[in-house]
Structures are given as C-alpha cells and as structure tokens.
Specification:
This protein has one domain: 3-Layer(aba) Sandwich (Rossmann fold). Helices cover 34% and strands 14% of the residues. It is built from eleven helices and eight strands. It has an eight-stranded mixed sheet, with helices on both faces. Strand 4, helix 4 and strand 5 form a beta-alpha-beta unit. It is globular, with a radius of gyration of 17 Å.
Length: 247
C-alpha cells in the first residue's frame, strides 16, 4: 500500500495530485527542476504531510512515484533512484507545442508510444500510464469516494500486472476507478486526440470565437461531468490510430 507518494514535477497535474493525496491521508514528497526552495508556498498550503526535495530524493522516498514533467525532459528522470519502483507516467506527446521527438515519429502511427519510450529509459522500473487524459482542474474537482454514484474512471496501461494493480489502488484512494486498457503499446488509445482524452470530462465545449483570455476563464469555470467505467472502456476501444502517434 502506498503511504508516501513521490512527485517528480509539481506543475498543474502534480499539484492537483499532491492535494488529492494529502486529503486522502498520504505523505507527499514534491520536486521539480528548479529546486525545493521554489515549492515553499505549495508545501505550506499542503501542510505537515508534504515536503519538498530534489527529484532524486522524491524518487527514493516514494513508495510509488509519479513522473509529471514535460515529455521532452524524460531522460532527466533519475533512473537509478527509480529502479525497482512503479512509476506513473502522466506525460503526453505534443510535438506542435513542444517540438518533435524522433523516436516517436519514426515508426508512424503504429510505432513506439511515449510511455514505451519512458519505460526504455527507466529500464529497471515498472511504468504505468495514468492521470494523462484529464485536465488538472477536472482531476481535482471530479474526485469522489468509493461507492459514490457520480464517481469517474480513468484509463491505465502498463506491461506489469502488479504495477497496474498498484496504480489502480492509488487511483482508488485519490477518488477514481481505473480501467485497464492494456499494455504500454496500447496506451495510444488514450493519447491526445482520442475519444477518451480530456473532452469527455467537460460538461460542454467552448465557443470557437473565444479569445485566449476568455478560453482560459471558460476552462477554469466549466464544471466537470462523470465519466464512468463503461464509458471510459467504450471510448478507449473506439480509438483509431492517428498520424503521428502522440501517446
């Protein structure tokens, strides 16, 4: 059972997960690329269950570790300190925003997925893809206790059954059901642009004529909606390969 959650990356998704984890009674060790001193305010907000550290220290401290950084920086993940651990990968491939990664584009739509690339770097770890298909606002606001009728589900994928079970247990503690959609090679089914990615968790779609500022306001204010186990499974199953693969 996870008692301490290590977070490598403390941006929007990382901060939302930290808040959910502390609320669930877990200890949290936060880190980012800028140093522990930049996390003082967030740690103060989270309280006594949270502390700041370096990525290597967070990797060592966590019973389970979440890697939630830009995908382009995946090679900076501390492989030695993460050896033998389950690592949850929240990272998505956005070549139009952050630049292409040759290894992901060479094989075309059926080539290497981003999580498989992360697993290749973390060869001694067990990578599970999760928390990547929902935005940080809805991730926090849609969390519900076990048995709640409006509880949502999130897809997970990975090559190790025990690691997936560990990740599913964390989702459960944080307020979500888990839907196993297969291996890391199958993780493209929940990549950006697929039916289960982000959009189903919104109650509405924005008007196309919104300015960037208006769009951000809409994004923050729009309520989330329940996406249950059967819906997540059906949406993932309906995915078709796009070009390029942005898993």
């Amino acid at each position: 059972m996870t008692k301490t959650l290590g977070l490598i990356g403390a941006g929007n998704i990382g901060s939302a997960l930290a808040r959910l984890a502390v609320a669930a009674g877990l200890d949290v060790v936060l880190s980012n690329s800028r140093g522990p001193e930049t996390l003082t305010d967030l740690v103060a907000e989270l309280g006594l269950r949270a502390r700041a550290a370096t990525p290597a220290e967070a990797a060592e401290a966590g019973d389970l570790v979440v890697a939630t950084i830009l995908l382009g920086a995946y090679e900076k993940l501390p492989a030695a300190e993460l050896a033998g651990k389950t690592v949850i990968d929240t990272m998505n491939y956005y070549p139009d925003r952050f630049g292409p990664i040759a290894e992901l584009d060479e094989g075309g739509p059926t080539g290497l997925t981003s999580s498989a690339l992360v697993q290749r770097h973390l060869a001694a770890s067990k990578v599970v893809k999760a928390f990547h298909n929902i935005d940080f606002v809805r991730l926090f606001t849609l969390a519900r206790p076990v048995g709640a009728p409006d509880r949502s589900a999130l897809p997970i994928s990975g090559d190790d059954a025990a690691a997936k079970a560990e990740a599913a247990a964390l989702l459960d503690v944080l307020g979500y059901d888990a839907v196993d959609i297969g291996t890391l090679a199958d993780s493209w089914r929940s990549q950006p642009g697929t039916p289960v990615h982000v959009d189903p968790y919104f109650t509405a779609k924005p008007a196309q004529e919104l300015s960037q500022e208006e769009m951000y306001g809409w994004y923050l204010r729009t309520p989330g909606t329940t996406v249950g186990i059967d819906q997540v499974r059906a949406l993932a199953d309906s995915a078709v390969h796009a070009t390029p693969d942005h898993a």
